Amino acid sequence: MRSKQTMWRLWAKAIGEKAHKKDQVADQVALIRTIIFLSYLVTNLFIVAGVIRHWNDEPVQIYIESADAKERVI
Question: Is this prediction's pTM over 0.85?
Fold first, then answer.
């Protein structure tokens, strides 16, 4: 397994280019980018969970026209 420092460097490179020449400043920027990414992820998870929760909440009504009645609900 890779060390934490190596994994952090890979993650920092994955979220964007190095923001500064100094590693300490670049790490701070990467941490801020990670927080922003996590907030987007949590927000999207709540949106998806809300959509799934309210999927087909209301019963569907089908209207059929016939010769003897104008509308009939099934």
Answer: no
